[in-house]
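Running co-folding for zinc ion.
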Amino acid sequence: MAADLSTERRCPRCTYDLRGQLDPRCPECGLTFPPAQWQAGILREHRPTRLDRVDPWQPHQVLWAGLCDLLHALAAPHWVLRQIAHDGPPHAAPLALLSGLLWLVVACTGLLTWATCRAAEVSPYAGLTAALRYHVPRLLAPGVLTGVGLLVLVARPRVSRVSPIRARHVLRLAGWWVPAAAGVTVAPFVLVAAFWPDLGPAVGGAGPAVAAVVSLRGGWVLRGGEGPRTGVRRADVLGGLILLVAAALAQILLPRTLEPPLPTYL
Ligand SMILES: [Zn+2]
């Protein structure tokens, strides 16, 4: 069953060296692999996410699992790329996307309300209105676009360890990847503005570049991993173009100051 006994291949769960192993199974931890995966030499462990295991009709469960999954994806992007199960329930990926974006809106609104109140010395209500109506949408639009551009770059067999990669794999990946990448994109603006309100707008434009470097680990994610190397694909050009548009959008949309716009007071 082994396609090439001489090539180094490691168990994705315990990193045991599976070279020379005839059965599609890790003798160390017992993880088994589908024959096609074993034959292609691209090994992956499929773990259900928290959102895969909750009842979608229980909003409190969905929100809590969505927050835990978002924090997990922010802390460990490789979990999204290489470990989340691809055969989870169909509702989980849209729920991950929506709950992840909702938590980003809540976090950004809270921090930017505080920052606006400090920077402009306005009432909490004016700060909240300015954050929710002006600052957060202008931050999240380039953030989500950056997440989509990076998704196009990472949706390849070598990175996500699935071959061939199909539309349902990409959709599944998108649910957890896009909100996490959007979170990294908005982080420079929001975190700096929370402590130094005047500096936030100055560093916000670097968000898409920061997200690209952090989530791709400086390009290592695209270069490393198992499976055959591929040259530059059409999808890579598309992903690069989307990232450029996101960076331009960030320059255009990001607020230059946290001062609430005049209509806030009307
Ligand atoms: Zn193992």
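Result summary
The longest helix spans residues 124-154.
The mean pLDDT is 88.
Job closed.
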